[in-house]
Fold this protein.
Amino acid sequence: MNVLYLSRAIFPSGATHTLSIMRMCQALADSGHRVALSGREGTGASSPDLFESYGVRGTFDVHLFKIVRWLDNRFGRRLFLPSLALALRSHRLFRTFKPDLIYSRLTLLELLAVPKHLPLVFEMHNLGHAGQPTLEGRLFRWIMGRKNVVRVVVTTNALKHHLQPIFPDQDIQVARLSAEHPQAIADDELTRFRDANLRGKQFTQHVGYTGYLDDFGLRGTDIICQTASLTPHAAFHIVGGEPDKVAHWRDYAKDYNQHRNIFFYGHRNPSQMPHFLSCFDVVLAPLQLRTAPHAPDGLNMSPLKIPQYMSFAKPIVASDLIAHRELLEHDRTALLVEASNPRAWSEAISRLLADNKLGARLAEAARAAYLAEFTPEQRIQRILNGVPALNRGLAPGA
C-alpha cells in the first residue's frame, strides 16, 4: 500500500513531533508499505543526513517544500498562506506518488487538498483545534466530519474520552507512542562515547533526562534542578533543548547547583540518544501540569520518551499523572512520584541508586511491557487494523 504522510512540520528540527513523525514513517515502511513524507524544508535537509540525524534507516521517501519568506511571516500565517502553499504542492504528490492512504498530523487547511476518494487517518496528541470556538476550530471539526476521514488516532485513553463527544460518529483508535528496538552498542564504542561526551565523571552514579525543554516548566526542568540539589551523590544530565531554552534553564540551575552535579547538553541528534541512555543508571520523566491547571490531566501529554526508556530497560522515575499511569505501573515498571515534590523525586532516585535489585526488577518489567505493548509493529497494527476503507483488498505492499 502507498502511504503519504502529510505534514507541515519543518525537517530537520529539534521539535519532538518531528522525531515522532519520522519514526512513524519508518514503522510504516518496516511494515511493508511504500511511504512518502511531505513537510517543510529546514536547514541541512539533505535526505541522507536527515535520516542519520533522526536515527532512522530511511527506507521511505521525503519531499520537503521550501516556503518563500514573503509568505511565511506573521501576516502570511494569519491568512494561512504557508498552509495553502503546502496544500498546492502536496496536491502534486497525489498525482505522482498515487497514495492509497493519507496519514496526517499537525495539519489543517492542507487536508482540504486531499481528494475525497482517498481515505485519511488523522493523528492527534492533544485537543488542538477540536474544542476551540475559533474559525480554525469550526473548520477542523468540519474536515473531521468528511466521509474520507476514516479514523482518528490518539495516544491516550484520556484524549479519546474527551474527543468522542465532539466527534460522536468518528472511529477513534488509541495507539500509544512506540519506540524502535534499541540497537546493541559495543562496549568499546560506549566507552569512547562516554569519554568524549559525558560530563561529571567524578560521579559514579548518573541520572538522565532526554527530551524537549520549554520556558514554563511543563517538562519539569525546574524539578530536576531542585532534585539535584537534594541528591548530591549523583550527576544529573539534561539532554535536549534549543539554545535559548538551555540558556534559560542553565541560569535557573545556578541556585541549585551547589554540588556541581547538573549538566546541560542542548539538542543532540536522536541517533545519539541510545548512547546517552546507556550511560544513565536512572532516567526521569518529570512532566508537570502547572501551565494548564484548567485542562484535564492527560489531554496535552503524549510521553514520547517513556516507551524509549522502557525499551532500554532503564529504571524509571516518573510524575504520577494520568498520561504516565496509562503506560507505567507504580512499583512494577517504574516509581511514580508526586509531580511537583522535589524531595519525593530525590527519595525515589536515591532508593533506586541504593537498591540494584529493585532497579533491575523495574527495568526488566518495563522492558517486558515494551515488548508486549509498545513496539512499532504493534502500533502500526492498532492504527490500520479494522479501517473500513483499507479492507477492500488492500494489503501491505499492494
About this structure: The chain has a mean pLDDT of 89.
